[in-house]
Design a protein that fits this description.
By secondary structure, this protein is mainly alpha-helical. It has one domain. A hairpin with a 6-residue loop joins β1 and β2. α3 packs across α4 and α3 packs antiparallel against α8. The radius of gyration is 24 Å and the shape is elongated.
């Protein structure tokens, strides 16, 4: 079969090998929540993927399809992209939990209209969600979770050898099952604050019924905002513990995906 060559001999073979290995790593970085931020330059992502790919080629006996541009080579590239996206998507699910919790808290506080530009996706999201996302990112990076996750990405070349392994339907079901853990984490984060806000709203409702002359909106909205801010300050230590647990859960889920 004719293959595309540029006349560089052995150097060209190593270049194709490097590009093939970079496919999975680049897809994982593209799907990961912090590496894929709009503020991260594309050149930096390519440089990080290339540096990790050099280490993978040096440490692991990665077998590259002889003809990357053939039908079998393209299928192997698609498999690499799928595995990389799956590894990054697991982190994306966990990082979505604080945003969902912020949606519930912001709606109960009456701050759902306060939105900010999300630096990760570029879309608009609740301002409280940005606070939770930044806090989770700081905790995750402070615990070294990004280094452990990159280590798992490198170990995936042993669990899923390039060109010889695809994600099975069982793996896809496991990833979908991680979505239920995301909703459970979101409920656990939002529950203490929403419980306080529910009590405040009940008290405002009782006052409005006992004194109909009081304006419910002028009374309930400021009370809800103040009670929500006070509850957020009170549960700050609990949020830190929950984000620590959520960071550990991200790594455990990624590791369990490689063991199946």
């Amino acid at each position: 079969m004719n293959t595309l060559t540029f006349g560089f001999g052995a150097v060209e073979t190593e270049l194709w090998r490097l590009l093939f290995v970079m496919t999975r790593i680049g897809a994982a970085l593209l799907a990961a929540p912090f590496f894929s931020a709009a503020a991260v330059p594309v050149q930096l992502r390519v440089g990080v993927a290339g540096a990790i790919a050099v280490l993978v080629i040096t440490w692991l006996p990665v077998q590259v399809p002889p003809a990357v541009l053939s039908a079998s080579g393209i299928l192997a590239l698609l498999a690499e992209v799928l595995i990389g996206l799956a590894l990054g998507f697991v982190l994306q699910l966990s990082f979505a939990a604080p945003v969902l919790a912020a949606e519930q808290i912001g709606g109960a506080m009456g701050m759902s209209i306060a939105t900010a530009s999300d630096p990760v996706s570029g879309a608009h999201s609740p301002a409280l969600g940005q606070y939770f996302t930044v806090l989770l990112t700081v905790v995750f990076l402070g615990l070294g979770g990004h280094l452990t996750w990159l280590e798992l990405v490198i170990e995936s070349y042993t669990a899923f050898p390039p060109g010889a392994a695809w994600l099975s339907p069982d793996h896809l079901r496991i990833i979908v099952g991680f979505g239920s853990d995301m909703f459970v984490a979101a409920v656990a984060i939002a529950l203490p604050v929403t419980l306080v806000l529910l009590l405040v709203q009940m008290a405002a409702g009782v006052l409005s019924r006992s004194a109909p002359s009081l304006n419910l909106f002028s009374l309930g909205l400021p009370a809800g905002v103040l009670a929500g801010m006070a509850a957020l300050i009170a549960v700050a230590p609990l949020l830190t513990d929950q984000f620590n647990e959520l960071s550990s859960q991200m790594i455990e889920q990624t590791a369990s995906l490689l063991k199946r």
